[in-house]
Structures are given as structure tokens and as C-alpha cells.
Design goal:
319 residues; alpha/beta; five-stranded mixed sheet; 43% helix; globular
Length: 319
């Protein structure tokens, strides 16, 4: 009996190894659970173009937006774990269990982490006409008049809303979220002064900051952004636990052969190190975030717990 089990284990290991050797033998489907045009859509396409060249197979992007990213995510959770379907997601993945208690999948159990593409700092932007020169001045004004503050966001649980809420809760003031379908609309309203602030992805905000149409008061990332090192972080500005890391990463269905996961991770790291890819990502403000699958998995599980507590404290609920 023992010999039979051992022989079976050896056979299974051999089959898995053979699968990894021949993978990929057909195009790979990459599901992005958000619409076209967002950072989570644009950034991975740059990496996938390089990876397709390396792997000799195309990586076909499929945008499946809806329900805060949970529709496309659920589809990948149910896909065959053969390495031909993957999920591209952001840090919104780890807040979903707190916002949607009846999810049809488990973020922790139904996916295997493959690797991180990078992180994108969000900048707190505001119209110069508001008259505030520092983030501390604005916080003081918002505390003095609880009905004063409004901020732009792209829905509950989005990276821009998480950045705003992490900052707001730490600074201790009230603010009303004004939802928009797209970032361009939010920027327009902030620029006009009709909405107070917006934690905007750095690549979108910088051109408006450089030409003086907007002020950049702070970044929500743990460290200063390399694209705008003169702008302090919210942590440096004196607000503990106000930081938020907006990352983008790759997941596959649970039970995907570890050899395939490891191979994809190696090829992705190789693509991210390609000079042309590095140049394109730097222009978009993407910061390197090199994590092994195990390190990424640990971060995902840690964030699930952290943001469950945070969502409750901030009163965040999906509509």
C-alpha cells in the first residue's frame, strides 16, 4: 500500500513537472475585473506584451467589470486551475470580503498569489483657489466645520477611496464622498473647486500639478513617490496609520500547479526588468514592488484582516 501511494505521488509530481515544461502551449486569458482605461488595465498590458514575447504565447486581456470587481474575480475563482486563466487585481481585492460579506469566493482560499506588478502612489490634490497651502491647514479647517469637507472617489473600496478614508480617519475629520464614474470627471470637479480633494493616481495628477492648476499636498504611499519626491507622505505630515499602498498583482485559481505559478512569476520578474518596460512603467508613476509569491500571499492575508477592522471603523459599506 505504501509503495503504491509513493508511486502515485511520484507519478503526479512527474505529470505536474511535464505540464510546467510545456506550459504555455496556447494563449493565456487574463481577467481584469474593471473597465478599460484604469491603471489596473493599462499597467498590466505593458507587462503582458513583453511576457507574450518571452513565452511565445499571447496573453489575452478580458475586462469583466461589475460589483466592485467581484464579478470578474468570481469567474477566475471557478476557472480550471491549469495556468491558462489568471486574475489581475489591485489592493481592492483585500477589502472586498469586508464590503461584500456574501461573496461567492474566498480571497484567501480560492486563489494562489503569483506576483506583484508594482504600486502606484495616490496624491491628495486640491484646487489652488481653496487657499490651503498644506494638508495640515485643510485638516484644521475641516475639523472646524464638519460640513465643509468633500472628496472625489470612484466607488466604495476603490484605491482612491481607501486612500481618502485612511487619511480622513487618521486625521479625525468628517468628509462626504462624491462618487464619479471616472477619474477625469473627478479631477475636473476638484479643479473647479466644487469638490475639495481627491487622492488621484500620480501619473494622472502630475501634469495638472506641474502647470499650476492643482496643488499636490501629500501622497498616501508609505514612502515619497520617485516621480514627485518634493511632495511629503501623509505619514510625514503627522498622520499615523494614514498610508495606503495601491498595488497591482497577479493571481491564479487555487490548485494551479506550483511549477506553473513559479514559471509565470519568473517570467513576470524578467519582463519587469526589461528596460523598455521599466521606462514605460516609470512614466506612469509605477513603483517597483518585488515580492515572492509567498511574501505576496502573506501581505494579502494580512491586509484582509487589517481592512476588515478598518472598514468597520470607517463605516464603509458597498451599495
Amino acid at each position: 500500500m505504501r509503495r503504491t501511494l509513493l508511486a502515485a505521488a511520484v507519478l503526479i509530481a512527474g505529470v505536474a513537472g511535464a505540464c510546467a515544461d510545456t506550459w504555455p502551449s496556447r494563449p493565456i486569458r487574463a481577467v481584469i475585473p474593471f473597465g478599460p482605461g484604469s491603471a489596473v488595465d493599462i499597467v498590466p498590458r505593458i507587462v503582458f506584451e513583453q511576457m507574450a514575447s518571452q513565452l511565445g504565447q499571447s496573453i489575452v486581456v478580458e475586462n469583466r467589470a461589475g460589483a466592485g470587481g467581484t464579478l470578474g474575480t468570481a469567474a477566475v475563482a471557478k476557472a480550471d486551475p491549469d495556468g491558462y486563466t489568471l486574475l489581475v487585481h489591485s489592493s481592492a481585492h483585500t477589502i472586498a470580503p469586508a464590503l461584500y460579506p456574501n461573496l461567492s469566493y474566498s480571497v484567501a482560499r480560492d486563489f494562489v498569489t503569483v506576483g506583484t506588478i508594482g504600486s502606484v502612489p495616490n496624491i491628495m490634490i486640491m484646487a489652488p483657489s481653496k487657499g490651503y497651502k498644506t494638508v495640515q491647514q485643510y485638516v484644521a479647517a475641516a475639523k472646524a466645520d464638519p460640513k465643509l469637507s468633500t472628496y472625489a472617489a470612484l466607488g466604495v473600496g476603490s484605491a482612491v477611496q481607501m486612500s481618502a478614508e485612511r487619511f480622513r480617519l487618521s486625521a479625525g475629520f468628517e468628509s462626504v464622498m462624491v462618487p464619479f464614474k471616472g477619474g477625469a470627471e473627478g479631477i475636473t470637479e476638484v479643479m473647479a473647486g466644487r469638490v475639495d480633494f481627491y487622492f488621484c493616481p500620480i501619473s494622472t495628477a502630475l501634469p495638472h500639478i506641474r502647470d499650476g492648476r492643482l496643488l499636490g499636498l501629500a501622497v498616501s504611499s508609505p514612502r515619497r513617490a520617485s516621480a514627485a519626491p518634493e511632495i511629503p507622505t501623509t505619514l510625514e505630515s503627522g498622520y499615523a496609520d494614514s498610508d495606503y499602498t495601491f498595488w497591482m498583482g497577479i493571481f491564479m485559481p487555487a490548485k494551479t500547479p506550483p511549477e506553473i505559478v513559479a514559471k509565470f512569476h519568473r517570467e513576470m520578474a524578467r519582463a519587469l526588468d526589461a528596460p523598455a518596460v521599466k521606462e514605460k512603467l516609470a512614466k506612469l508613476g509605477v513603483e517597483p514592488m518585488p515580492l515572492s509569491p509567498a511574501q505576496f500571499d502573506a501581505q494579502v492575508k494580512r491586509e484582509i484582516g487589517t481592512y476588515a477592522t478598518f472598514a468597520k471603523a470607517a463605516g464603509m459599506q458597498a451599495n
